[in-house]
Amino acid sequence: GIPPLDQCLNLFDFEVVAKTVLKPTAWAYYSSGADDEVTMRENNSAFGRIWFRPRILRDVANIDYSTSLLGNKSSMPVYITATALGKLGHPDGEKNLTVAAGKEGLIQMIPTLASCSFDEIVDARVNDSQVQFFQLYVNSNRKITEKLIRKAEDAGVKGLFVTVDAPQLGRREKDMRMKFDDTGSNVQNSNKDNVDRSQGAARAISSFIDPSLSWDDLNWLKSVTRMPIVLKGVQTWEDAVRAAELGLAGVVLSNHGGRQLDFSRSGIEVLGEVVEALKARNLFPNPMFQIFVDGGIRRASDVLKAVAMGATAVGIGRPFLYAYSAYGSDGVVHAIRLLKAEMEMNMRLLGAPTLKDVVPEMVDTRALSTH
Ligand code: FNR
What we know:
Blueprint: H1 11-21, H2 24-31, H3 38-45, E1 51-52, E2 67-69, E3 72-74, E4 78-80, H4 95-104, E5 107-110, H5 118-123, E6 132-136, H6 142-154, E7 160-163, H7 173-176, H8 200-205, H9 217-224, E8 229-234, H10 237-245, E9 250-253, H11 267-280, E10 290-294, H12 300-309, E11 313-316, H13 318-350, E12 363-364
Parallel strand pairs: 4-5, 4-11, 5-6, 6-7, 7-8, 8-9, 9-10, 10-11
Antiparallel strand pairs: 1-12, 2-3
Helix pairs in contact: 1-13, 4-13, 10-11, 12-13
Ligand FNR binds next to helix 2 and strand 11.
Subunit structure: Homotetramer.
Cofactor: heme b; FMN
Domain FMN hydroxy acid dehydrogenase: 3-368
C-alpha cells in the first residue's frame, strides 16, 4: 500500500509515492527530460542560487497571498500548468486537477493533448466562477486550431497559452525506450492514424504540431480570438520584448520542464534579463503584460523568489501529476494546501504581509546569473 496522504509533507514527497504506483511507461513519460536532462536538473538547482533578504519588525499578523492572473482571481500566485496525457497516471486524468483547482481557488491550464475530452474537463468545474486557461499547440491544419480556439472561448476559457518551444518534441530517451500504449490514455486533438508507437508517448502524439509557426502567425491568432494571448516557452529578453511590443498579454518563461532543448536556462534565470530589458523600454511594470515562470517550482520559497523578481505567478506541472496519480484529486488538494501553508510562513518570516511587499530587494540574486 501507499502511505496515508498526511504523511506527504511537501511537494517532493508525492514524486516518491507516484514512482511506486505508476506504470513504467507512465513514469517514463511524466518524469523524463530531454537528452542528458541537464536543464531539468538546473530548473531545480537555479532556485538554490537565490537567497532571501528578509525584513524585521513589520506587522505580519495577517498574511494575504491572493492575486490576479490576466484579470482573474487566484488564491495564490500559482497555477496548474498544462501537462499532456493525464490518464496515464489515473483514470480520471485531468479532471483531478480541475476539481482540486476549483476547491482551492487556483487556475488550471487545460492542455491541447489532454486525455479527458475538453468538454469533460470544462464540465468538471466545481462552480460557475471557476477559471480555466487553454494551452494551444498549433496544428498544421489551421482550421482545426481555429475550431479548438472557438470551443475554448465558448466554454468561457480566460486565456490562450500558445506553446512556442516545441516545433518538434524533444528527445526524452527514457520515454523513447518505451512503446506507447494508448489503451486508457486516450489522447485528444492529436493525429489518430499513422502514429508510430515504437518511440514512446511524446513522439506518438506530436506529429500534428506545425514547425512552420512564426511571428507572422500571431496576427492570425489575434484575429480569431478575443482571449488574451500568452506565449509559453519564451527564453530570452529579445523574444519577451517582441511579445510585449506586439501587445500580447504576457509570456511564460519556461523550458517545458526541461523536456525540449537541453542546456536551455531555467525560467527563473531568464526572468532577470527579461525584467531588466522590459524596464529599460518602459514596458515593465505593466498590468497588461504579465510575466509567468515555470519549471522546478516545488516550494513557496521558489514562488516568492519569482514574485520578488517580477513574475505575476508561476506554473507547477509534475508535482500535481504525481499527487493525483497516487491519491486522486485529494492528493492535489493536499499539495495545494501544503503550498499555501508554506506561503503563509515564508511571507511572515520575510516580513511581507502581501505580495506587493515581496519586492526585488528581498532577494539576493548575485549568485544566480552569469551576466
Ligand atoms: C509537460 N509540459 C507541456 N507543456 C505544454 O505546453 N504542452 C504540453 O502538452 C505539455 N505536456 C507536458 C507533459 C508532462 C508529463 C510534463 C512534465 C510537462 C510542460 C509543462 O507545461 C511545464 O512547462 C513544466 O511541466 C513545468 O515544469 P515542472 O513544474 O514539471 O518542473
